[in-house]
Design brief:
The complex is a heterodimer. Helix content of chain A is 74%, strand content 0%. By secondary structure, chain A is mainly alpha-helical. In chain A, α9 (214-242) runs antiparallel to α12 and α11 runs antiparallel to α12 (270-298). Chain B has two domains: 5-222, P-loop containing nucleotide triphosphate hydrolases (Rossmann fold); 245-341, no CATH class. Classes of the chains: A mainly alpha, B alpha/beta.
Chain lengths: 309, 349
């Protein structure tokens, strides 16, 4: 097991190295320079600035310098945001995004599982149709439409919650709901389909023949088997939620990482672009690893060789 | 004295889009402690549906239309689902056909066995664990303490079926229903499982209902045999009655189509045609269209159960006093002779 994790960590390292390299050169190919907007600077002043930030060096040299810093955990200093170290910006900005994403993921999947479960138990009844309708609407309508609707109804019309901004728990409620719709719909669809199949399987009949009660059938024997495929989709979903939805963050004026990313690309803030990209990549591969390990926990059939004796 | 299990005129139907499918059309039999009844018949004859109806575990749109299932005089048909949950696994339990899929893949074997014990016998986990290890021992699984903590995928097919049997036996059921328990296993394992079931029956003294289409298995395990066709029992008797002195042409066909070690170059007999559509059960004898010995009355009226002896009954007009005297076909007669000569039970030494 330890060996497996070590091997996976090594792969992770290689993946991140490749991503860092590719994005560094892609970024350098972007048109424009960080000084585009600074029209008031004279040519010689610009040269001084470029020299200071090492932007006059040949690209391979810049790359080597950057990677050298990266290995030491130094992501450089932002060009645009008051010379703050990129690490500080990321730490500062990831908080709201991660919190929102986490809340949305938990609320969304739990509600989705319940919805799918209800649908599968009362198959082909009104509850099933209601739940399926919700799931279809949730998958097909983009989250910013919900965001706008929620703002209009709960903030503007009813005045119950703030329209936007960030700070207290009440600020997180509407964006969380808007973000949770999609994972909820996905979880509901998966749970229903899987659960219907599981409830028809032979081992459920065996359990019934043992005299297991209906609730035992659903919670103890059914749900665990039905949730296995869901784990696969939750992984990537978790990453995209926790690394921030650029659109939702814009709508609710949340100082998150998604919003930050968009701005830094606009102004050619090289260190911030790299830092954010690498963080996304890191979170992605890390969560994939966690999901793979979780898989073994849920499904003994794919427990890793050497994991249990 | 009343019997352990009495099934009286059981009728089971399925509501389908096309109408009511009458899968079981009035089945009656009884069973004593320690007795083994084999229900035989081809696919679709209603044997599995009968067994699921006894447990009240009919899938989907199936329902018991009529009849009684008396377990020690108490009618199970009238029991609610809640009451049935207390009976299933405790008084009646079941071994299924496919051991590869009949165990929960994400639950440890031990827990799957202990579940019934904890529920029905109010055992605490510790006692249930002891009993489960005992059961695994009893069904011949080596290293039961280790095996308890393993998952189904770590067991072979035969071993899984042993586990399924252990689960079924956990609470010493009065009636054990085995629905083709050896069909999915290879032949050497089949023999082991049958041997195991016979041994266990001696120890526990449960009655066994053995559902199968394999007449070799029947000869090996059963005391009584019920032959089912189109949702009805058409011949019923002891193993000797059925193998030495079959009366129904369908039973002749079944015996004739069973390969034996001596049947080398001769062509195996096959019953022509297919079973009737149970959406519209035929008038008269359901077997008549496939029966070379059918009489005119067979197309008009259903034959009642004629008594051959105290233990032997068959539903065919051929047993009517006015019927012509028809002998079974030559090949079947040879078979019967063969069974008698070899002392019938080929699996029995």
């Amino acid at each position: 097991m330890t060996r497996y994790i070590l091997r996976r960590l090594w792969y992770m390292f290689i993946t991140l190295f490749i991503i860092a390299t590719v994005s560094f050169f892609l970024m350098k190919m972007l048109p424009g320079s960080p000084l585009n907007a600074e029209d008031k600077l004279s040519e010689s002043q610009k040269q001084i600035v470029l020299e200071k930030y090492g932007l006059n060096d040949p690209v391979p040299v810049q790359y080597a310098k950057y990677m050298g810093g990266l290995v030491k955990g130094d992501l450089g200093i932002s060009f645009a945001f008051d010379n703050t170290p990129v690490t500080d910006i990321l730490v500062d900005r990831i908080g709201p995004s991660a919190l929102l994403g986490f809340q949305a993921l938990v609320v969304g999947t739990l509600l989705g599982i319940l919805l799918g479960l209800t649908a599968s138990i009362f198959r082909n009844g009104p509850l099933d149709y209601t739940s399926t309708t919700i799931a279809v609407l949730g998958t097909s309508i983009p989250s910013f439409v919900f965001a706008g609707l929620l703002q209009y109804v709960f903030a503007v019309k009813l005045g119950l919650l703030p329209v936007a901004l960030w700070g207290e728990f009440k600020h997180t409620i509407l964006p969380t709901i808007a973000l949770a719709i999609h994972p909820m719909a996905t979880a509901a669809r998966f749970t229903r389909t899987e659960m219907v199949e599981v409830l028809h399987s032979n081992y459920i009949t065996t359990a019934r023949a043992k005299g297991v009660t209906e609730s035992g059938i659903i919670w103890k024997h059914g749900l665990r088997n039905a949730l296995i495929p869901l784990v696969t989709v939750i992984g990537p979903m978790a990453v995209s939620l926790m690394t921030g939805s650029m659109v939702i963050e814009q709508i609710f004026a949340i100082p998150g990482i998604g919003e930050q990313f968009v701005t830094s690309v606009m102004v050619n803030d090289y260190p911030t672009i790299m830092g954010t990209t690498l963080m996304f990549a890191f979170l992605f591969v890390a969560i994939i690893l966690v999901i793979d390990l979780l898989y073994g926990l849920i499904d003994p059939r794919i427990r890793l060789a050497g994991g249990s004796k | 004295m009343s019997k352990l299990l009495e099934v009286k005129d059981l009728k089971v139907s399925f509501d389908t889009y096309n109408g009511e499918v009458q899968a079981v059309r009035g089945v009656s039999f009884d069973l004593d402690k320690g007795e083994t009844l084999a229900i035989v018949g081809e696919s679709g004859s209603g044997k599995s549906v009968t067994s699921m109806a006894l447990m009240k575990l009919l899938a989907g749109q199936g329902f018991i239309k009529e009849g009684q299932v008396l377990l020690e005089g108490v009618d199970l048909v009238k029991k609610s689902e809640k009451e049935m949950q207390k009976i299933r696994g405790k008084d009646i339990s079941m071994v299924f056909q496919d051991p590869m899929t009949s165990l929960n893949p994400t639950m440890k074997i031990g827990n799957q066995i202990m579940e019934g014990l904890i529920k029905h016998q109010n055992m605490n986990r510790e006692n249930a664990k002891k009993r489960a290890i005992e059961l695994l021992n009893q069904v011949g699984i080596p290293q039961p303490e280790v095996r308890m903590n393993q998952y189904p995928h770590q067991f072979s097919g035969g071993m899984r079926q042993r586990v399924v049997i252990a689960i079924a036996l956990a609470c010493n059921p009065k009636v054990l229903i085995a629905d083709e328990p050896t069909t999915a296993l290879d032949v050497t394992i089949q023999a082991q499982i049958l041997e195991l079931m016979k041994e266990i029956q001696k120890e526990v003294d449960s009655a066994i209902i053995f559902i199968t289409h394999d007449l070799g298995v029947v000869a090996n395990v059963a005391d009584k045999v019920a032959v089912m066709y189109a949702g009805k029992i058409i011949e019923m008797g002891t193993v000797d009655d059925i193998f030495y002195n079959p009366k129904h042409p369908y039973t002749w066909g079944l015996l004739g189509s069973m390969p034996t070690p001596d049947s080398t170059d001769e062509e195996l007999y096959a019953i022509p045609g297919t079973p009737p559509n149970m959406l519209k059960p035929p008038v008269g004898d359901a077997f008549a269209p496939r029966n070379e010995f059918a009489l005119e009355i067979d197309t008009v009226m259903e034959p009642p159960m004629f008594k051959v002896s105290d233990t032997h009954y068959a539903a065919t007009w051929l047993l009517h006093p006015d019927a012509p005297n028809i002998e079974p076909p030559e090949t079947v007669k040879q078979r019967m002779q063969g069974f008698a000569n070899t002392g019938r039970k080929d699996g029995d030494k």
